[in-house]
Amino acid sequence: QVQLVESGGGLVQPGGSLRLSCITSASIFSINAMGWYRQAPGKQRELVATITSGGHTDYEDSVKGRFTISRDNAKNTVYLHMNSLKPEDTGVYYCNGRIRVGLGGEINYWGQGTQVTVSS
To answer: pLDDT digits over 36-84, tens only?
Structure first.
């Protein structure tokens, strides 16, 4: 079983920065893709950024140029560096790990979430 633990959320003013961390219980080499999702109150959860085991990254359009997803293999940790934060970035941020198994199967693991609030 893969366990994910997020940290780094908090309150920040617009234009500020935060770095979120996701520590995994397994080597991230065994996880095909890691990602960050977020969910604002009353809204559906949305994908923010992903990084594959091969290093390929993707970003949701609204965060391109402001957020950076990265990983530290030695620490089994994935980061989300968030700059130029906006109030609309507010939400609970969740770490996700995806492992492909069997013939076309897939298992997703989720962290407990960390709150990010961007407000004056």
So the answer is: 999 998 999 999 999 998 999 999 999 999 999 999 988 999 999 999 9
Q: Which residues of 14-37 are buried (b: 16+ CB within 10 A; e: fewer)?
A: eeeebebbbbbeeebeebbbbbbb
Write out the two tokens for 42.
């009353």
> Reduced to 3 states, what is the DSSP secondary structure of residue 74?
helix
Around 24, how many Cα atoms within 13 Å sit in the side-chain half-sphere? 29
Contact residues for 114 (Cβ-Cβ < 8 A; gap 6+) = 6, 7, 8, 9, 20, 92, 93
SS (H, E, C) 41-55: CCCCCEEEEEEECCC
Amino acid at 16: G
